[in-house]
Each structure stands twice: as C-alpha cells, then as structure tokens.
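Quick review question:
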C-alpha cells in the first residue's frame, strides 16, 4: 500500500484527503485563465467529491466495464482531473485528448487507444463526430448523454494497484505517437515521490501549486495533481502560460509552488521590471526543466525563489526521477541532481560500455530491489517490440545523454536523437543552441541535422532574430563567427535559416519531430544560407 492502508488508486487517495481536508481548496481555474464562455471555477475537496460522484453515476450508467478506456476532450483543463477520478473509481482508464491536434492526430489516438467513448464538454461536437465517423467502436457523447445509453450499472471494483489509470501518448521524434500505459501504482508513486522530497520542497495542506502545463501530459496529470492530493493542497490550473498576467496570477492565487518549462523563465526575464515581482517568500520554489543556463541565476536573483531542475520521462514516472533540490545545485549548468539511493543507473556509450566520470553517455535506469520496474509505465499499448527495446537487459534506455560530475551530480547534455553525427564527431544540438542564444541578435533557435554526402550529417540552425537584427547572409556569417569563438569548428552551424517563429508543442517545447524534415526541405529549396566554408579547423591562441 502507499502510506495508508486501503489506498490502491488515485481515487482512494482522493477520498482519504476528502475525509481530512473537506473544506480546503482542491482545484481552481482562476479568472486570468477564464473567458466569456468559461468563467473562473473553484472546488473544495468536498465540492469536487460531490461532482465526481455525479460523474461516476453517469459513467456507471453508461455501461463501462473495468478495464475500458474513455477518451476525454475538456472545455476547461481542470475538468480532466474530475473525470480522471470518476473513471478511476470504476476501474476505467482515461485517454486525454488535446483538441489543438489535427484531425489526423486525434483520429489516430482514438483508433489506436480502442476508446469506447469520446466524452466532450466543448463546442466541437460536430468536428468530433466527423472524426469518429469511421471508427466503429468509438461514440461521441456529452456527459449528460451517458445516462441515456442502454445502461447496466457497474459496481466499483476492488482497488487494483496495477490497473491502468490513464493512457498518455508521447510525441516522440520519429514515427507515430506511442501510448504509455500508466497504472494506479504509477500515479501513487509519483505523488509519494514528490511528497517525500522534503527540505525546500516540503509540502503541506497550505500549498497552492500553479501550473500552466496541460493535463494531457504527465507533469500536470500525474506529478502536480497527485502531489497536491496526497498533501491536501490545491492545484491552480491555467489554460496556458500568460506572460503579461503571470505575476498578477501568482500573487492573487497565493501560489507557493509554480511548475515551468524552459521557455517560461526566458519570457519572464524579457518583461520590464514591475512592482508585481516581490513576493516576500510566498513562492517556495519552481519545479521544472530546461531553463536556459544563462537565465538560471538571473531568474533566481530577480524573482527571489529557486528554479529546481528535475528530470523524468513519461516512461519512468517517479520510478526513476531526479531533481536538483539540494546544494550544490550547480545553477546554470543543466544539473538534474544526484540519483536517490533507490535508483540504479548507468551511463553508457553506443557500445553499451560504461563511460568514465565526466564523459557523456546515454542514461540507463531501473529501480533497486526485486521489482526493477516499480513506478515506471506498464508498457507501450499494442507495441511489445517497442517496450522490449526501451527495456533492454533489465534497464530502461532513456535516450537522454548525461554526464556525471565529481560530486555524483548528473548534468543533462541532450536527447540522443538530437545528437548530430558529423565526420565521426558527436555534436549536441542543445550545446549549439545554448551558444547561439548568447548572441544578442538571436531571440530563439533550434538546431538539427541534415544529410551531408561527405560527412554524414551537417548542422542546420533555425534562427528567430531579434527585432532590430538583420536576417541576411552577412548576419548569418557573423553568427557563425560568434559560435567559432566558443565552439569547436565542427559544431558550428553549416547552414542557417531565419524564421519568424519556431513551432512549439502543447507543452511549449520545440516541435523537433518536424524540425529535420523542414530543414531538409529548406536545404533542397536553397532557402537557407550555406556557411560551410567557415567551418575550418582553427588553432586557438594560448591564454
């Protein structure tokens, strides 16, 4: 069991907290995330429990058996949590749907997941019915329509720690998205891990966790949600990141914890200094990943609270999660902390040989003890081969390249699939991007590989220029010269293309899945600057 006897599911954990914290705030969507057709909303633990019981009755009347899946498209993000708990009480798995996706993407998700229903509370019913027209097993309904179906009530099953609670799809960098099966144990382990951090991350029932991250991803759906349920705190859910009203929302919602991704600190630092930034210790910490190294210390100094860089994957959950929450945190060095004692890890080269300390390699992880997969995902749905590939020889292959420092801290280098292989040299896209971002004429950038007949790969950089900066051949050459002063010649971009913006995913990360194909298309159409003539070995001056 997870801390308390009888708790074997997220719904069990929620009921336990309802008994202790009935009148305390549980879930909020503040006014800054509201609109004319979607006003602000708030639930206490007791009010949420009453709403979940109503949903539970509707779903039970809909004839859903334990083990079924229901896709859910929400009008407001907070609804995802309520429907998750209602379905979880019946042993039914939630498949969250992002309506910002294309018709083809949503069709694939519904068809692949074998969802019996897609339940929606948004004004896109006609679109969803059109999408599901050729999916025989999937019907589109609103919650109130569930009771109209030929009904057979399903009694809530006994809690099963291994039962699937949600099916989340990872975007990946190649191929179709994979469905990650996440069990009750996955959710509970995530909440326990977060609550067990202690120190500067100590949680209590007075905490209010503000997140702009979507509950279609594990950070919000599993980490922040379960952390607050287990401590009796409150999730303050935004529809997205609103830079201009961010600090006003932090203040008005009395947020004590914020969740972030790397692009957010960069945007907040670019805003003018205002009187809204002094919180007098209100915010204990930020929890996130990917802050630009050059922004890390500046952010903490300006806003007065630490950004704690964490690492996990949908596949690992809290079975193998790291966070740089204790000193030395190595601020500005992409440190993800020291592995906790319950996690075993290896750092290996391409031949699966352990590398020396300080050398970059792929991170492999597993849980210590008899159950090496405790807290991890249960596997990829309908893809045993892919599950076997990621779990190879008893280790989960993360695909992330890290290095280990002298004190045992791990430092993130890049995704292995983002490593560019040029003339036998491995080049980290993130390292090149970090260097490009030190140029005053660069607002944002993304680096990928394009084919090169002689060298295998060549470095291609997309650049979002600053407002007053040129975007011509001379500017591109100056940018490469800037990189040559800081990087080995083979790492600098061989091609540069200027763009107005980079396409981002729903979680505000660069959409790398499309980056390489877009770069190849630009190269074939000669819609980029060829700077390969600058990539020559240069002997650096001593001193």
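Suggested answer, residue by residue:
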């Amino acid at each position: 069991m997870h801390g308390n006897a009888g708790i074997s599911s997220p719904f069990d954990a929620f009921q336990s907290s309802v008994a202790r914290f009935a009148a305390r705030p549980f879930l909020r969507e503040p006014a800054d995330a509201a609109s004319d057709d979607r006003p602000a909303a708030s639930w206490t633990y007791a009010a949420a429990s009453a709403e979940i019981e109503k949903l539970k009755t509707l779903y039970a009347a809909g004839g859903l058996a334990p083990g079924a899946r229901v896709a859910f498209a929400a009008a407001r993000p907070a609804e995802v949590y309520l429907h998750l708990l209602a379905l979880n009480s019946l042993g039914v798995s939630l498949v969250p749907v992002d309506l910002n996706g294309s018709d083809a993407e949503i069709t694939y998700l519904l068809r692949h997941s074998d969802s019996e229903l897609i339940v929606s509370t948004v004004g896109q019913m006609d679109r969803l019915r059109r999408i599901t027209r050729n999916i025989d097993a999937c019907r589109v309904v609103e919650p109130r329509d569930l009771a109209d179906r030929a009904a057979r009530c399903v009694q809530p099953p006994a809690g099963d720690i291994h039962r699937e609670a949600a099916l989340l799809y990872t975007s990946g960098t190649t191929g179709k998205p994979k469905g990650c099966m996440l069990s009750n144990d996955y959710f509970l382990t995530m909440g326990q891990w977060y609550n067990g951090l202690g120190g500067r991350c100590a949680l209590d029932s007075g905490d209010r966790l503000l997140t702009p991250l979507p509950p279609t991803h594990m950070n919000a759906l599993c980490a922040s949600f379960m952390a607050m349920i287990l401590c009796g705190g409150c999730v303050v859910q935004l529809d997205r990141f609103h830079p201009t009203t961010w600090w006003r929302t932090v203040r008005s919602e009395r947020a004590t914890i914020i969740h972030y991704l790397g692009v957010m600190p960069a945007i907040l630092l670019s805003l003018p200094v205002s009187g809204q930034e002094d919180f007098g210790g209100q915010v204990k910490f930020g929890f996130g990943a990917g802050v630009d190294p050059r922004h890390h210390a500046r952010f903490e100094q300006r806003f007065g609270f630490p950004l704690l860089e964490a690492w996990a994957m949908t596949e690992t959950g809290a079975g193998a999660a790291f966070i740089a929450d204790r000193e030395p945190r190595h601020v500005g060095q992409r440190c993800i902390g020291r592995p906790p004692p319950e996690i075993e890890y290896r750092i290996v080269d391409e031949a699966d040989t352990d590398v020396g300390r300080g050398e970059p390699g792929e991170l492999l992880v597993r849980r210590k003890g008899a159950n090496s997969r405790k807290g991890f995902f249960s596997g990829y749905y309908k893809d045993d081969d892919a599950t076997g590939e990621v779990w190879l020889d008893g280790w989960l292959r993360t695909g992330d390249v890290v290095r280990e420092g002298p004190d045992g801290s791990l430092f993130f280098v890049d995704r292995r699939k983002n490593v560019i292989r040029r003339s036998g040299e491995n080049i980290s896209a993130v390292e090149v991007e970090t260097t490009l971002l030190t140029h005053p004429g660069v607002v944002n950038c993304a680096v990928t590989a394009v084919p090169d007949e002689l060298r295998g790969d060549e470095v291609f950089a997309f650049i979002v220029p600053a407002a007053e900066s040129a975007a011509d051949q001379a500017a591109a050459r100056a940018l490469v010269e800037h990189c040559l002063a800081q990087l080995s010649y083979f790492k600098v971009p061989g091609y540069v293309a200027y763009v107005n913006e980079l396409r981002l995913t729903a979680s505000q990360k660069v959409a790398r899945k499309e980056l390489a194909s877009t770069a190849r298309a630009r190269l074939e159409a000669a819609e980029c600057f060829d700077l390969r003539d600058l990539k020559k070995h240069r002997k650096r001056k001593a001193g």
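Why it works: The first strand starts at residue 25 and ends at 29. The domain at 423-534 is CATH 3.30.300.30 (GMP Synthetase; Chain A, domain 3).
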